[in-house]
């Protein structure tokens, strides 16, 4: 779409999608097969696992968005825009969420330094056993917070 827009051609995404389906159905099927799908897993109860992540695409304009979703209910426990990626900023958002929703049993996050404070908080509250603190992982499912959630304050679920 960038090339078409640069040449002054105005095409909606829907029109482009329809044309691609009509003229290249086989290529369209191949592209669809490579889409990352939500992974199936079972979380036993609400607050048993929270997924945290940060979005840094707007960092050049001093916007960093941090979010956290409950793994069972898909409730957005917090989503905060700030002007930094510091640990104390993430800690403050996390603490506000725990005051509102209670403490999770576990938290899943990436390897970022901004999550170290949350790890320390979880260790203080839940102990230092590996199963009750921060679980580091690559966050395919959590990144969907920012790509597949329209945040509506009246409906805090994804």
TrEMBL record:
Any one Pfam family match given in the protein's UniProt record, by short name: rva_4
InterPro entries: Integrase_dom_put (IPR058913), RNaseH-like_sf (IPR012337)
Span of domain Integrase core: 41-143
Full protein name: Integrase core domain-containing protein
Upper classification of the organism: Eukaryota, Fungi, Dikarya, Basidiomycota, Agaricomycotina
């Amino acid at each position: 779409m960038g090339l078409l827009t640069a040449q002054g051609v105005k095409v909606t995404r829907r029109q482009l999608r329809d044309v691609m389906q009509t003229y290249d159905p086989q290529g369209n099927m191949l592209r669809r097969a490579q889409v990352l799908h939500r992974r199936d897993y079972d979380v036993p109860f609400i607050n048993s696992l929270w997924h945290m992540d940060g979005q840094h695409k707007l960092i050049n304009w001093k916007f960093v968005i941090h979010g956290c979703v409950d793994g069972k209910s898909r409730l957005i426990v917090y989503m905060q825009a700030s002007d930094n990626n510091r640990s104390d900023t993430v800690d403050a958002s996390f603490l506000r969420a725990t005051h509102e929703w209670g403490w999770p049993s576990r938290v899943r996050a990436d390897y970022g330094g901004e999550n170290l404070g949350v790890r320390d908080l979880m260790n203080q509250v839940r102990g230092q056993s590996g199963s009750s603190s921060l679980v580091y992982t690559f966050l395919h499912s959590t990144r969907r917070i920012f790509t597949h959630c329209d945040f509506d304050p009246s409906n805090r679920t994804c």
